[in-house]
Design goal:
InterPro entries: DUF1488 (IPR009962). The protein has 96 residues and is of the alpha+beta class. 29% of the residues lie in helices and 33% in strands. It has 3 helices and 6 strands; from the N terminus they run E-E-E-E-E-H-H-H-E. The strands form 2 sheets. It has a 4-stranded mixed β-sheet. A two-stranded antiparallel sheet has the order 1-2. The relative contact order is 0.24. The N terminus is likely disordered.
């Protein structure tokens, strides 16, 4: 399980390996947990292409790229997470 400490007391974890492709947002959605608080994260197609340029540019390709790079993506998500700030966070190519 990936854990990332943000600041002295804020910790977000990514124990749920569920993810899904959101066609409307053109992004893979995944979830993090900070105690009882659940936060949604979206990593868009361009970010996935930056991480893994040779992926297939379809839903299954984006999901495979996410799975292959989960630790890197969760580490970036932990860096953009701010406790109680908002319900969802977007990861863009600039985050990588």
């Amino acid at each position: 399980m990936l854990r990332q400490l943000i600041g002295p007391d804020n910790m977000i974890e990514f124990p749920n390996h569920s993810r899904s492709y959101d066609r409307t947002r053109r992004a893979v959605r995944f979830w993090g947990h900070d105690s009882a608080i659940e936060a949604s994260f979206f990593i868009n197609e361009n970010a996935l292409k930056r991480i893994q340029p040779d992926i297939g540019y379809d839903e299954s390709g984006f999901l495979r790229a996410f799975d292959s790079n989960r630790d890197l993506i969760c580490a970036a998500a932990a860096k953009v997470y701010v406790r109680g700030s908002r319900g969802s966070y977007d990861l863009l190519a600039d985050n990588f």
